[in-house]
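Example 9 (inverse folding). The structure is encoded as follows.
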């Protein structure tokens, strides 16, 4: 034997150290998961807002394109006259 067997106070102190160590590790894991969850949530919100902004911008562009006059069925002379180009200048 190296020394006398540990007393009951030593065993209680050892259990307190173990329990407090486990509680500390669990607390740190909860904090890390909480901050990771918050970061992921804010990233998702930012991505959703960016997608909505892009969708709105695309719809505006589509509306602008759809309001262009249909030039495919008009003679070139009418288009030039409307733009004041060429011989059709007033």
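The amino acid assigned to each position is listed next.
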């Amino acid at each position: 034997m190296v020394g006398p067997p540990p007393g009951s106070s030593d065993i209680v102190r050892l259990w307190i150290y173990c329990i407090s160590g486990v509680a500390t590790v669990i607390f740190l894991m909860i904090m890390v998961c909480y901050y990771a969850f918050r970061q992921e949530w804010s990233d998702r919100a930012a991505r959703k807002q960016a997608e909505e902004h892009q969708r709105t911008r695309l719809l505006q562009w589509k509306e602008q394109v759809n309001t262009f006059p249909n030039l495919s069925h008009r003679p070139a002379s009418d288009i030039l006259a409307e733009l004041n180009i060429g011989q059709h200048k007033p």
